[in-house]
Description:
Strand content of chain A: under 5%
Number of strands of chain A: 0
Number of domains of chain A: 2
Oligomer: homodimer
CATH class of the largest domain in chain A: Mainly Alpha
CATH topology of the largest domain in chain A: Tetracycline Repressor, domain 2
CATH architecture of the largest domain in chain A: Orthogonal Bundle
Distance between the termini of chain A: 67 Å
Radius of gyration of chain A: 19 Å
Shape of chain A: elongated
Amino acid sequence: MSLRKEILEVSKEILIKDGFGKMSMRKIAGRCGVSATSIYLHFKNKDDLLLALIEESIENLKQALMEVLDPAKSMIDQLEVLARTYISYALEHPQEYEVIYMVRPEEMPKYPKEKFRDVRSAYELLADIIRKGKREESLDVESSLISAYTLWAQLHGVVSVILNKRLDTRIPQDQFIEQAIDHIIKGFVIQKTPA
Amino acid sequence: MSLRKEILEVSKEILIKDGFGKMSMRKIAGRCGVSATSIYLHFKNKDDLLLALIEESIENLKQALMEVLDPAKSMIDQLEVLARTYISYALEHPQEYEVIYMVRPEEMPKYPKEKFRDVRSAYELLADIIRKGKREESLDVESSLISAYTLWAQLHGVVSVILNKRLDTRIPQDQFIEQAIDHIIKGFVIQKTPA
DNA sequence: GAACAGAGGTTAACAGTGTTAAGTAAACTT
DNA sequence: AAGTTTACTTAACACTGTTAACCTCTGTTC
């Protein structure tokens, strides 16, 4: 196996097990049986390595979402199962999920550009469902793509509150998730308010 | 002025100007004219200092929210202006906002307990509006407190996507915010679906 | 075959980090 | 006056990401 791939695997292993704080270049290198500087032959710097990990993590999340997609179901049902899956996945793979939103902007000024086509495709996945829902008039949106991002943002918010332990101790996590999904989905479906 | 207070002020100054990454103990100490170790006489460690900053930041955010509260308006309108204010505040004070959600869980295992009454009171602020909306049957919620957390989470998600520069370059930020607020608010108002 | 170029690694070092242990000097208490 | 406490200091430990310089093996070209 190439060292590059081994670095990625080991990094991810450390990341998932011990969190980002413990993921040092020397530790990664040590576990690969090489010196720390060798990593710099395969990655520009730590952020660059992190970027590769982010891509992987998003790809995995996207995969998890795709697996629960069921064209037989209604768009609303699909949206709900996607929301549920997103949250479950994030809570079951907290360390990996955190990577996705961890790298701070100042450390990576020119984020998208060529890379991150996978990332976009993950959003397109949601946008597609929403677009279909819009066509069959079960969903109430203006721009499907923007709504996809909105949905994603809302889900991330819910996950973030839980992972960062910001949830009130009085509130049962399950109940919070259920109510959050309710609110989020309701925000997307057609409102048939009688004149 | 007490050194403790000066440390807090200087920390915040550095944090807002240069971001968390540049906020080192030695730098704070240097700018206070003392040695780095002095900080440990007033704060248990860096996380502890950060916690104090988080409290302050949340208090400021809460203050900004309280200022736009207007009992004359409908609950739905108030909810909307709160949402708008939350997002604006976060985007206008990005470094300060980031503090609120930055400290990672593993670094602070026992978060709430005695402290953070202010934090809770910020949520209660939202919960109050929601509770009133529920009473006058303009809002559709089960638990007001949980819905308050849900609203907060959703708003944080929207902000987070923008601050972390995860928004698609094709999407105008303003339009994203507008559509997000629409979806979020809609998720809370009563749905009068005709049987 | 000899000379060269580059790939893929090395060690040593720099400048920085959070944090602790031990020491000091002034102020308060008895 | 002696002792204790308070608020600080310096020195050091064990790390961090990153760079410069060096080495060694491989493949290519004359």
